[in-house]
């Protein structure tokens, strides 16, 4: 018997930052619309993703299929950017994805395929099997505007932006200054430049674009995308702001004993008194910068929880495929001598990974020093926690500018460049600004106002709820068309 509910297939590219919002999107399609959902996950050499999937609160809610790992060592330079590696990995996974979709078709044919940014080439498979196809942008609409618009500009504008460091003027949107621009745009001779421009061209060939944002967060950018006389002439297809997609704490896997010590320590701290410091699942600092950060935290005299991983001097995204702590002895010998002892009464250092969702939701957390990955940003907003913006790679510099200059939810170092060392006195100043100074109170109030806005968007008949419902309606209409066609055959 044919199902009367659509089956949606989602494709997540490698990395926890890509997987988590895809999982949350899948859950919403199941819970809010009673869809059947299959999530295809591109496996890597880390066990963290598998561990996360094993510990989903209701594993029967979603059908998760891990695609076999692929070897790209002969296809990309070892020093290639993380974006290049992910794109090539996704390309090499296409045959396995096609086979997996054929297997699921035998039971329940997918009505739609939703791919994230780096999986856009998989939309050809959706065409082959006459499925609706959507691109899911796990970041914000401003990032999407730059990604979609850059391939359309002429050489003169490109040269002005890259060579003369003038802002990238995007129709109807906030300009992207050179200091914040995406690294993929910088070198036309680099493989990542060619690959990324292709992504920008392919996005508008989808049936729609889902974005991890909401109407009240980026009204101007979203309006420009819907205006065919403005950016809409580039994006072309409907945009659906469906965010924020954030893990509810009660849905996070049970916390093991070794991690429970973090929450136990937080229980003993006063309300909003702890600065949480983490650079995401893949971010790293240089040796010198890590020492300065340690001293800055100590000089601030504020309580802190710091997730540390070994420094890497040449690649801020060097830990992207190495987020688990297996084989790590937990001794951070790269911190200043005596740091752990001197700060044992007010600081907690955690090697490699921590239960971020639980930490940010704890009442004792008063600030978040973050790399500005969009998942972390949204988790901070949804918990009403003000931020110190410390971008490292990808679109994080754009995110940091949005947080500090447009939304007023964070403070940021005066140093824009990720190659410049932020000194301990500057770090102390930023920590105290959030945790002690009056300016921090104003930022905290704005974050909590935005949390209310996000909660409203996600509520029944809220803007994001309605936006996802439109996508669901299109999937249901497509399914009915498939069933009618089958009956008439």
TrEMBL record:
Q: Which PROSITE patterns does this one have?
A: UDPGT
Q: Which organism is it from?
A: Acer yangbiense
Molecular function terms from GO: coniferyl-alcohol glucosyltransferase activity
Output the Gene3D superfamilies linked to this UniProt entry: Glycogen Phosphorylase B (3.40.50.2000)
Question: Per the UniProt record, which EC number(s) apply here?
Answer: 2.4.1.-
Looking at the keywords, is Zinc-finger present? no
Protein name listed in UniProt = Glycosyltransferase
Q: Which InterPro entries match?
A: UDP_glucos_trans, UDP_glycos_trans_CS
Query: What Pfam families does this protein's entry cite?
Result: UDPGT
Q: Which CDD domains does this entry report, sorted A to Z? A: GT1_Gtf-like
């Amino acid at each position: 018997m044919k199902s009367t509910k659509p089956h949606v297939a989602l494709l997540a590219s490698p990395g926890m930052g890509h997987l988590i919002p895809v999982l949350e999107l899948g859950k919403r399609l199941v819970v809010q619309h009673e869809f059947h959902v299959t999530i295809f996950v591109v496996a890597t050499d880390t066990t963290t993703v598998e561990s996360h999937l094993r510990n989903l609160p209701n594993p029967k809610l979603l059908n998760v299929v891990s695609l076999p790992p692929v070897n790209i060592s002969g296809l990309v330079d070892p020093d290639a950017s993380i974006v290049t590696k992910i794109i090539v990995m996704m390309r090499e996974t296409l045959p396995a994805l096609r086979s997996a979709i054929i297997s699921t078709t035998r039971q329940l044919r997918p009505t739609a395929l939703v791919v994230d940014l780096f999986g856009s080439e998989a939309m050809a498979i959706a065409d082959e099997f006459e499925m609706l196809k959507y691109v899911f942008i796990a970041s914000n609409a401003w990032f999407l505007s730059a990604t979609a618009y850059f391939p359309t500009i002429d050489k003169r504008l490109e040269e002005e932006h890259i060579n003369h460091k003038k802002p990238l003027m995007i129709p109807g949107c906030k300009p992207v200054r050179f200091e914040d621009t995406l690294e993929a745009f910088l070198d036309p001779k680099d493989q990542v430049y060619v690959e990324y421009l292709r992504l920008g061209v392919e996005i508008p060939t989808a049936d729609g674009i889902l974005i991890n944002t909401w109407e009240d967060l980026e009204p101007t950018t979203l309006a420009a995308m819907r205006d065919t006389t403005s950016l809409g002439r580039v994006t072309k297809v409907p945009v659906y702001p469906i965010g924020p997609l954030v893990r509810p704490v009660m849905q996070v896997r049970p916390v093991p004993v070794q991690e429970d010590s973090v929450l136990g320590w937080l229980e003993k701290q006063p309300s909003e008194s702890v600065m949480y410091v983490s650079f995401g699942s893949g971010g790293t600092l240089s040796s010198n910068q890590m020492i300065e950060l340690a001293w800055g935290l100590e000089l601030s005299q504020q309580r802190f929880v710091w997730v540390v991983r070994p420094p890497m001097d040449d690649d801020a995204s060097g830990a992207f495929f190495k987020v688990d702590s297996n084989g790590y002895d937990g001794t951070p010998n790269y911190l200043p001598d005596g740091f752990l002892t001197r700060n044992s009464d007010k600081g907690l250092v955690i090697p490699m990974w921590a239960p971020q969702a639980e930490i940010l939701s704890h009442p004792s957390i008063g600030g978040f020093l973050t790399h500005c990955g969009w998942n972390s940003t949204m988790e901070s907003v949804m918990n009403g926690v003000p931020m110190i913006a410390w971008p490292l790679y990808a679109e994080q510099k754009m995110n940091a500018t949005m947080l500090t200059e447009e939304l007023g939810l964070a403070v940021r170092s005066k140093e824009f460049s990720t190659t410049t060392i932020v000194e301990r006195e500057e770090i102390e100043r930023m920590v105290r600004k959030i945790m002690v100074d009056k300016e921090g109170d104003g930022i905290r109030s704005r974050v909590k106002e935005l949390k209310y806005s996000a909660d409203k968007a996600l509520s029944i008949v809220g803007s994001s709820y309605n936006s996802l419902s439109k996508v669901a309606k299109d999937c249901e209409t497509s399914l009915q068309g498939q069933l009618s066609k089958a009956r008439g055959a």
